[in-house]
Design brief:
Blueprint (H helix, E strand, L loop, with lengths): L2 H11 L3 H38 L7 H23 L7 H6 L2 H7 L4 H14 L4 E8 L2 E12 L2 E6 L4 E2 L10 H6 L1 H4 L16 E2 L9 H13 L1 H5 L4 H4 L2 H48 L1
Antiparallel strand pairs: 1-2, 1-5, 2-3, 3-4
Length: about 290
């Protein structure tokens, strides 16, 4: 079917008042569902964030909160992972939406779930976060960790091992510190640490995820802000509030369809009025002629 005919069919469909009313109903119910899920998710992480903050002394620093959030994420996820690691969980929420609450409740994504939960806890306290895909065993994503920006700069946090690293001066280490002096920092890892995780390389965003489109975005960023800064951009934390993003998206679509619906109603009413006026004029002419 030619593209022009398809376009005409869609145009006719969106001028159909009954279809628009049906579509508005679907969007309205979706907006309600996504909004309530977003509120539920936000309240969960806010409650955990409050528990962490209440356990710290007044005037705590970002570093204090980050380290306490690291321990909390490890505590929560370690126990859930033991329960759910061998269980296959299916359904639209698990397979399609996959919100942060799914990771919080199941720990199914192993190091990825640990990183997502910690990221949400840090974001709840207003701390800038990056999720890093470590280069391990020859490919990116062999292990995932989190970097948080505290008052003393970026620091590495590995929630799967409840692990952070300290430099010789006592300050917490960033990825660059670990990459350049792993022989020193590897002495701080626990006994069960996977020795293939050597902080040899990191990818903060998988720019090959959406072929052509994401690559075009990356090339544009390289040109605008420089390759080094573009390489450090972490997109994933911005997308973790799944239901919040969906509720805004559906809300915008609902505004568009409602506008189309009212335009359609106005057009129909205007046509009905003009038709009635025409019939009145015609009737008057007939009466005069008689």
């Amino acid at each position: 079917m030619p593209a022009k005919r398809i376009f005409k069919k869609f145009k006719a469909l969106f001028r159909n008042l009954y279809f628009l009313i049906f579509l508005n109903g679907i969007l309205l119910s979706s907006l309600f569902y996504f909004s309530t899920e977003a509120q539920y998710e936000n309240q969960l992480f806010t409650a955990i964030r409050k528990e962490i903050a209440d356990s710290l002394p007044k005037g705590y620093s970002k570093t204090d909160y980050a380290i306490s959030a690291l321990r909390t994420a490890n505590y929560l996820q370690e126990r859930r992972y033991l329960v759910f690691k061998s269980t296959k969980i299916e359904g639209i929420k698990a397979s399609f939406f996959h919100p942060a609450t799914f990771d919080l409740m199941t720990g199914k994504g192993a190091c990825g779930s640990y990183a997502i939960v910690l990221t949400r806890l840090l974001m709840a306290d207003g701390i800038p976060v990056k999720i890093g895909q470590m280069e391990a065993k020859g490919y990116y994503g062999g292990h995932m960790f989190v970097e948080a920006k505290t008052e003393k700069g970026w620091i590495v946090l590995d929630p799967m091992y409840d692990l952070s690293f300290k430099k010789q001066d006592g300050n917490y280490a960033a990825f660059a510190d670990l990459q350049h002096n792993w022989n020193y920092f590897k002495q701080q890892v626990p006994a069960d640490y996977d020795s293939t995780y050597k902080y040899e390389g990191v990818r903060y965003t998988n720019w090959d995820k959406v072929p052509v489109l994401s690559n075009a975005v990356k090339y544009s960023l390289d040109f605008i802000i420089g390759k080094e800064k573009a390489d450090r951009i972490s997109i994933r934390p911005l997308l973790l509030r799944t239901y919040y993003i969906l509720s805004w998206t559906v809300g915008i679509l609902l505004c568009i369809t409602l506008t189309g619906t009212f335009k359609n109603l106005y057009r129909r009413n205007s046509f009905a009025v003009r038709k009635e006026q025409f019939m009145n004029v015609l009737q008057n002419k007939k009466q005069k002629a008689a």
